């Protein structure tokens, strides 16, 4: 029988201090404060293998070193009377760590054990003023550590930062096995230092410049750009997900054919499909930015990602022209990505332009993405037989009319479309993702007219018209 117990990890050597929230932390804090389900939603999970020959004590010492290096992991978030918060960095303390031990005679598979550990760690959310923002589980076989999993609050890490933690832990554990000193920590800003910079005049200037850009975008937007097109389902918001090896193989070559980046190519495919949905010649889209373009932020463990409002023009005559336009939109978004969201959110509220779409491409930033597809379109199209569609979520309320996410692993893209069924009925969501895959795969080998994208989408809508109830 699997046994579960806890032990404490002590950490020392850090500098205690208090600071305001960073701009990225403010975004998550406001989300957690204002949305009832956000406490469990705003949690990121990861797992990694533990090299053989290490004891539980070795693993726990690596966890302690990780806490010493990254102030975001030993931070309490203290609410203020105004509804805001401050970050309090602890110089020393303890962190409870779960020890999950499966005996040899237990046949529970490791995937189930890891999943259960991650669910336990994530589902209750964090009490940020009472506990540290990370939870670890050491998964063992008869007392021998083999896997390490963790859940970290989005207040302390975004997707890139969570992957940085995995990389750090992997390096620390490997050094232990090899009998080498621990590798040096990356040179990077800590969250409290970043908050200080953001509150200086140069930080305020970033927000002023972003506000000017956003005002220009809002001047082009209006509520009718994403209109009601159908009777909404119950619950109202559906998320469809298409997992595809074929898209992972196609994006790089398709982007090269268009002399563009993977992100621009993916935004262009999204925009080509939005031409089939939007009645006008543009659509509003908030684009998520990782905000790690500066060297001192590349290795920062903190939540840096923020979205910025843009408007994508849909009047391009060819897919190549649309891709070029999307590359320009992404460049503008990137140059204004760091700003104080509370200021620009007030601008959007004043403008009254209604809900926008949202685009978040995480996959293009993953290392090890494939770069060479099969030799022919027919061969890659055959790989779509391995794609899998599902409905992971259905909820009554969402803060965006449409949320297009691209994530997954390097070898298998997860295309995720969360939409208001008044805008896209369930069958249209499925058709959107299927056409996304078909278009991307074809673009790896040949040009695709925008009219062809529309024809494929219409064909898929007919095919999936009977899934209006999911």
TrEMBL record:
Q: What is the lineage of its organism?
A: Bacteria, Bacillati, Actinomycetota, Actinomycetes, Micromonosporales
Identify this protein by name.
Uncharacterized protein
What species is this protein from?
Answer: Micromonospora carbonacea
Q: What are the BP-aspect GO terms?
A: lipid biosynthetic process
Q: Which InterPro entries match?
A: CAT-like_dom_sf, Condensation_dom
Top-level taxon of the source organism: Bacteria
| Example of a GO MF term | catalytic activity
């Amino acid at each position: 029988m699997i046994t579960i117990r806890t032990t404490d990890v002590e950490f020392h050597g850090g500098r205690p201090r208090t600071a305001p929230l960073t701009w990225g932390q403010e975004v998550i804090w406001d989300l957690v404060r204002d949305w009832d389900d956000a406490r469990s939603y705003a949690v990121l999970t990861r797992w990694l293998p533990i090299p053989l020959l290490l004891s539980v004590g070795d693993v726990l010492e690596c966890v302690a070193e990780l806490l010493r290096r990254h102030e975001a992991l030993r931070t309490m978030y203290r609410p203020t009377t105004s509804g805001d918060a401050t970050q309090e960095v602890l110089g020393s303390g303890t962190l409870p760590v779960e020890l999950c031990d499966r005996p040899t005679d237990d046949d529970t598979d490791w995937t189930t054990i890891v999943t259960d550990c991650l669910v336990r760690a994530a589902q209750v959310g964090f009490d940020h003023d009472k506990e540290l923002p990370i939870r670890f589980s050491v998964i063992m076989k008869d007392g021998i550590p083999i896997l390490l999993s963790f859940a970290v609050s989005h207040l302390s890490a975004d997707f890139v930062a969570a992957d940085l933690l995995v990389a750090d832990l992997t390096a620390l554990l490997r050094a232990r096995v090899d009998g080498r000193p621990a590798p040096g920590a990356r040179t990077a800003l800590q969250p409290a230092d970043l908050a200080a910079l953001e509150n200086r005049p140069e930080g305020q200037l970033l927000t002023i410049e972003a506000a000017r850009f956003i005002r220009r975008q809002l001047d082009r937007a209006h509520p009718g750009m994403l209109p009601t097109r159908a009777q909404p389902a119950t619950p109202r918001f559906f998320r469809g997900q298409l997992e595809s090896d074929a898209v992972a193989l196609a994006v790089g070559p398709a982007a090269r054919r268009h002399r563009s980046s993977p992100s621009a190519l993916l935004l262009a495919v999204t925009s080509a499909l939005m031409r089939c949905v939007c009645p006008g010649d543009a659509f509003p889209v908030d684009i998520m930015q990782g905000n790690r373009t500066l060297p001192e932020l590349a290795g920062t463990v903190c939540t840096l990602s923020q979205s910025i409002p843009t408007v994508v023009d849909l009047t391009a005559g060819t897919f190549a022209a649309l891709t070029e336009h999307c590359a320009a939109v992404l460049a503008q978004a990137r140059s204004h990505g760091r700003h104080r969201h509370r200021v620009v959110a007030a601008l959007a509220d004043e403008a009254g332009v209604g809900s926008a779409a949202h685009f978040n491409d995480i996959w293009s930033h993953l290392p090890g993405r494939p770069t060479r597809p099969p030799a022919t379109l027919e061969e890659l199209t055959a790989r779509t037989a391995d794609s899998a569609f599902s409905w992971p979520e259905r909820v009554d309320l969402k803060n965006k009319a449409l949320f297009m996410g691209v994530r997954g692993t390097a070898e298998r893209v997860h295309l995720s479309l969360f939409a208001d069924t008044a805008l896209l009925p369930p069958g249209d969501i499925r058709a959107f993702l299927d056409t996304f895959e078909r278009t991307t795969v074809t673009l790896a080998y040949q040009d695709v007219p925008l009219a062809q994208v529309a024809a494929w989408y219409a064909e898929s809508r007919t095919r999936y018209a009977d899934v209006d109830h999911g």
